[in-house]
Specification:
Layout: H1 13-24, H2 26-43, H3 49-70, H4 76-87, H5 90-99
Length: 100
């Protein structure tokens, strides 16, 4: 999938795959909808601020979960997962969640 610029309407495969997991598991979907609502309140109506806050939260929580699951090891799997997470368009995902 390297070099693929668009995938199923998302900017790349990594973003599509992450968005799929976020939206298609009921507990995850509900959780991120609640976080989106919190970000809207925190943004206090500032244009684009809710999306930026949500994007930061999405990225941080996914990075933290990856680190926890891999136990902080340095190996090929850690590098691959880190590379994939770095490709995710977190702002694009946040804007999508906020638009629902």
């Amino acid at each position: 999938m390297a070099g693929c610029s668009v995938y199923n309407g998302w900017s790349n495969y990594s973003t599509w795959l992450t968005a799929l997991w976020v939206a298609n598991e009921e507990p995850s979907y509900r959780y991120w909808r609640e976080v989106a609502d919190e970000c809207r309140v925190q943004a206090e109506g500032v244009e684009g601020e809710a999306a930026a806050l949500l994007a930061d939260r999405l990225k941080q929580e996914h990075d933290d979960a990856a680190h926890e699951r891999l136990g902080g090891r340095a190996d090929v799997f850690t590098d691959l997962l880190s590379s994939t997470l770095a490709d995710v368009a977190w702002l694009e995902m946040a804007e999508h969640i906020l638009s629902e």
